[in-house]
Amino acid sequence: MLFVEGKLERIDPNRCSSCMACADACPADAIKQWGREISVREAMDEIRRDKGYYDRSGGGVTVSGGEPLLQADFVAEVFKACREEGIHTCCESTLCVPWEQIEKVLPWTDMFFTDIKHMDSKIHEEFTGVGNERIFENQKKLAGLGKEMVVRIPVIPGVNDDKNNIEKTADYILDELGGRVRTLQLLSFMRLGEEKYASLGRPYGMQDLEIDRPAFQKHVEEMAAYFEERGIHCTVGTREKEA
Amino acid sequence: MNDSLHTMACGLDPYDKTYSLGYEVGHGDWSPFPRVNKLRQVFLDRPFNIDNERFRNVTKAYQMYEDLPVKLRCAKAFESILMNATLEIYDDDLIMGEIAAPAKASPQYPEFSVNWMLYEALNEPFEEREHDQFYFVNEEDRAEFIELCRWWQGKAVDDQVEAYLDDDQRKGSQSGKKIFQTNLYHYGGVGHYVMNYEKILRIGFDGMVSEAKERLAGLSKKDPDYAEKKVFYEAVIICHEAAIKYIERYAKLAEEKAAAEKDPKRKGELEMMAKNAHQIAGGPARTFWQALQLFNFATTLTLIESNGHSVSYGRMDQWLYPYYKEDMQSGTITKEFAQELLEVTYVKMNNPTKIRDGGTVRVRQGRGFGGECLTIGGVDRDGKDATNDLTMMLLDASVHTRMMCPWLLVRMHENTPYELKVKTVECIRAGYGHPKVFNDAPTIKAQMSKGMPLEEARDYAIVGCVEPNSPGREYGWHDGSYINTVKFMEMVLNGGRCLDCGPHCSRWEKCGALGKALGPNTGSLETYKSFDEVLESVDKQFDYWIDQMCSTMNIVDRAHRDRKPLPYASAFFDGCLESGVDLTAGGTIYNGIGPQASGIATCADTLATIKQLVFDEKKFTGGELLQAVKDNWEGHEILYNLVNSSKVHHFGNDDDYADDLFKFMFECYCRHLTGRPTIRGGEYTPGVYSVSANVGMGLNTNASLDGRKAGEAISDNMGPVHTAWGSHDIKGPIAVAHSVSKVDHSLATNGTLLNMKFPQEAVKGREGRDNLIGFIDEYLAGDPMHVQFNIMSSETMRAAQKHPEQYKDMLVRVAGYSAYFVELGKALQDDLINRTELSF
């Protein structure tokens, strides 16, 4: 920790032991702990508070992350408990995990949210650090089992929004997944990560990207129209269009 | 949601039509009827003038009839105003009748008070106010206004009140330390009722006159109150015969206008308006149009008589329905024209304006009469859903006009049809602030606790903001007084003294300088040995101050009875004609007074701070906390940060620690009012709502232990605390809903109010609509009374960027998830703002 005039100025992430004593001592919530270890029972106590709203709005619990299936045993137990209480369960995952992990949650999961970042495994690896093979294998297995799936494409200008990749994505959904995707959602690129990267002291890879927002939005809408044309139900964003 | 009941009731628009999303600037064409858009614009462009005509006429009448008993003098004055009022029928209008002044101009009511009128006319001109300005048309009017005021000095309601008040009452009131503020009825008329519209439409003014005449004929001289009752009936007859003649004057004017009109369409309309007026001058309404016309005359006439605001329209979809149904069945009206008439009537409801005294407008802003609640939906007297075509059409009219009035309210219950929920939410997310939502179950329970049978309780309508009322049977003095509970807490902390007790205080010479305290000494933070002692002290301060307030209200109540009886209005209330007793003297069935508490959450978080830091964790002494608020937190930064942080329990997070203290405060307040008798034979009814008074009250309140600095707003209505440091509720809307529902709302028989803010993004799309419906369902299932929503615009988001501390709890929909707007970085905020604009 770096102190200036008795006040904490900066924390060196390489030396921080995550003891959280600083957050406990801070009277102003200037340092806050996000995330904590909880038991299944604690999770259920929290979930149960919103059961009324889930029932009335037709909603339920979604686990997301990070990558929730890195804690597949925990997710499985929470989902099992949800099932017993009649709460709808949804898992939002990259599916970049061994199939065994997915199998653990499968019996208690009503629905999956997953995504397709790029059809070309090499480009996929370039941007995410891993190839897409395992992800696609898992998606195909889930589709084969008839699991309800919503698939998203984070549309990143100049990376995955070209005609070739889009056509291949449509082919993949229709041929490999048998079209068994409830909705394909196109999520337009936002500079969401910028602040977080800065606070972690890491460089933000999309720093220099400039977007003509209206033109880009129009481009994404055209992509959605293409998927619809191919018979894949597709929305821009996560909301269905108004009546 | 799919198992909800359905309805065949049908408005003009499809029930699931989506309007705009969020507040939009610069639109004037919401209605499909060009006439309505035009009338709306004409209204908006009109100035807020001061009109002396009523002032002049009422003064002349009082001078001429000075020797008559007060009821007859009031009746003769009413007659004189109606006979001499300048009448106008405005271009394109289909409904006639103003409040004896040009549309949007404020008439004067010297019967209630002139001292402030005179003072302000001479020293603080109405046109120079920071807000709520009114304008004299010329200097002659100003001079006449001042001259008329002088004649009335000593004769008004407030003069009688002042003569009775003692110093203990005064020191807590608006003329003292503003712990409770009785301004509204101290200086103006009461209103806050729903007249029996069903009755006037059915029997007309002739019927009212006949009934009074029959009662008069049946009076016996053996009755010791013979003389008072006789005078009352005579006064009722004078008023209602004057109403007949007044409407005939409008009929004649419409005929003249029709004769001179060149355009054949407009000529036909004016002829029909004349015909309508002739019919309802004395007779009952025979058509939908006549029903609306008679409604408007009956309502504006009660405003002319009483000056009361929040005169509410009851369950309009119920009492108006027979006329709609009959005209539709007989084919004499189209749905489109019925809709146009409703919308014209809505625009018309905005015309009445009222100058209030400068002290009142500092806490209660707004130049309209205000509070014209229009109730729709809910269950009928048998407990079945009451939705009909008019329920939907009155919602359509609201979203087509988007004006201050009427204050539309949808009653909901467990069998509210899906279509009505969708329509309601479509209006809410259009972001113009209407309608509000009320919950039948706790409200019916509240009404029954006033002694009503179940069937009558089910027939409740809301008055003003949130006050449950039995139409035509309850004179509830709702909105009777605003109570600053945070000021009580100062005395709990500091031995009965204000925190800033010292020579700068206007009362110093008769209070602190003599070693006295403002309130009783019930202990201080330096002396309490246990948290229970703190709670006992709270209870004692409530007991003392509510005694001061209620005894003040009783003086005000008495002054209205003595100086300004309401014979015209009385005939619209069950019991008055039967008993021969005026409405102001307790003639009707339910006769309560409803004062409302502000700052309950501020008090709850204050108690949580004390309980946690002093008694549970023992991290600070009571003396240290007291010093911090005495110093307005200066030099106590660590403590200031801590009490505002999530490390201290706060109300609104579904956390029993703080929520139980909110419950304690809520129940303590209700307990001290419930069952207290009023002089009209009713009981006091507690309400927990502040409207916007929490801001003005905060200005007069020292720092508080919830982490609020001196002068900041105290907590609003039933809502959680928001200090300059930040919002105290950080767990989202469901947590707020759960916290608020931990108290028994039916104890607050004068109503509770909860405001909620959502950004447009959160309610966007089909999912957003259904989520809001689901949220309302879940909230209402916890048995709270009321909720209303603000749907934010991107302007609001920009404002949030400038003052993030005030918007800490504002949720934004980011992508697949929601986040708190102010916790996001500037770049993302900008992106969200841009995206919002893209979606329109």
* Outline of chain A: globular
Distance between the termini of chain B: 28 Å
Main sheet properties of chain A? 6 strands, parallel
The number of E-state strands of chain B comes to 14
Sequence stretches where pLDDT stays below 50 over 5 or more residues of chain A = none
Oligomer: heterodimer
CATH topology of the largest domain in chain A: TIM Barrel
How helix-rich are the residues of chain B, as a percent range?
40-55%
The CATH C-level class name of the largest domain in chain A: Alpha Beta
Largest interface: A-B, 35 and 43 residues
Please provide a written account of the structure.
The complex is a heterodimer of chains A (243) and B (840). Chain A has 243 residues and is of the alpha/beta class. Chain A folds into three domains: 1-36, no CATH class; 39-109; 112-124 and 143-243, TIM Barrel (Alpha-Beta Barrel). Chain A contains ten helices and eight strands. In chain A, the strands form two sheets. In chain A, strands 3-4-5-6-7-8 form a six-stranded parallel beta sheet. In chain A, strands 1-2 form a two-stranded antiparallel sheet. In chain A, strand 3, helix 4 and strand 4 form a beta-alpha-beta unit. The longest helix of chain A has 17 residues, at 213-229. Chain A is globular, with a radius of gyration of 21 Å. Chain A starts with a strand and ends in a 7-residue tail after the last strand. The mean pLDDT of chain A is 91. Chain B is α/β, with parallel strands linked by helices and 840 residues long. Among the domains of chain B are: 50-160, no CATH class; 792-840, no CATH class. Chain B contains 33 helices and 14 strands. Chain B has a five-stranded mixed beta sheet with strand order 4-5-6-12-11. A three-stranded mixed beta sheet of chain B has the order 3-9-10. In chain B, helix 1 (34-45) packs parallel to helix 15 and helix 18 (418-429) packs across helix 31 (765-781). The radius of gyration of chain B is 27 Å and the shape is globular.
